[in-house]
Amino acid sequence: MFSMFFYYLCSIRIKNCIIMRIISIASQKGGCGKSTITTMLASHLAYKLEKKICIIDADTRQRTIQHMREIALDEVKIDPQTKEPADVKLCQAFCLQDKKPYPIIGASLDDSIFNVLEDVLNKDYDVVFIDLPGSIENNIFFQVVANCDILFIPFIQDPVDFQSNFDFCRVIVNAVLKNKESRLNYMCRFWNRYKDIRPSQFEEMNSFLSEYIPDVIPMVNRVGYSDAVSNSRCRSSLISPAEEFLNYKNFNLRNFLEEASSIILK
Ligand SMILES: Nc1ncnc2c1ncn2[C@@H]1O[C@H](COP(=O)(O)OP(=O)(O)OP(=O)(O)O)[C@@H](O)[C@H]1O
Ligand SMILES: [Mg+2]
């Protein structure tokens, strides 16, 4: 199906005792929340935990994260006529936080992405996120995944999406995680857009995953379904998710971000 040759960039680099981590929140299913969770987690690590972060936006078709950054930068700009920004609350939070936005670098899912990765590896980032499209038929996809340290797989409760993500996990475990040439050494899964409906069906899905893909470690915390996600101060690459959203009970964002950060920084 695809070549087993991995373009292997480097073993884990140690620079000034900092171990750079390459992370991807990946699935072959569109709309599971890859770009959303990538941005919230990157912003939490950058602005709350003060880590040096960069995102490589390799979703060439959509460029969701790059677009969102452009929109946010426009919205915090002061309009010379009204003397106000378009998004006053975001602008206030951004100014108060007083931190330079982390870089978001566009890359195509072809050989050129390895030049981008090599450049990034020569900088002292603590964590590099790669936002990938869901196109596993592309051989480059596997090579990029093989150069990640950790993959987070978002699952949603829809049965069709569930099956597709399950198949995705099985392929990645066998082709990459178990391949000694690959850098990938940890895969975990979590629920996103979780709604507390049909708990027995949900438990069945969980047991099924634990039985058939035991190498993909379940996270304790899931991200609930919440309209807060669409708020500019929740999913911004300019500020860490605002406190008020972290505390929404069913959203569970604070616990999720803390657990994910500790997996990454371990
Ligand atoms: N926890 C959540 N609660 C409510 N809505 C959410 C949640 N997570 C993501 N969404 C919404 O789901 C939609 C898809 O999210 P997102 O674009 O992050 O998915 P994706 O996996 O990156 O999709 P694609 O495969 O198209 O790149 C967006 O409208 C986003 O706002
Ligand atoms: Mg996306």
Structure description:
With 266 residues, the protein is α/β, with parallel strands linked by helices. It contains nine helices and nine strands. The chain has a seven-stranded parallel beta sheet with strand order 5-4-6-3-7-8-9, with helices on both faces. Strands 1-2 form a two-stranded antiparallel ribbon. Strand 7 (150-155), helix 6 and strand 8 (186-191) form a beta-alpha-beta unit. It is globular, with a radius of gyration of 18 Å. The model is unreliable at 1-5 and 10-17 (pLDDT under 50).
Question: What is the fold's blueprint, element by element?
Answer:
Layout: E1 14-15, E2 18-19, E3 21-25, H1 34-48, E4 53-57, H2 64-75, H3 88-97, E5 104-106, H4 112-121, E6 127-131, H5 139-146, E7 150-155, H6 159-177, E8 186-191, H7 199-212, E9 216-218, H8 243-246, H9 253-265
The site of adenosine-5'-triphosphate has 18 residues, from helix 1.
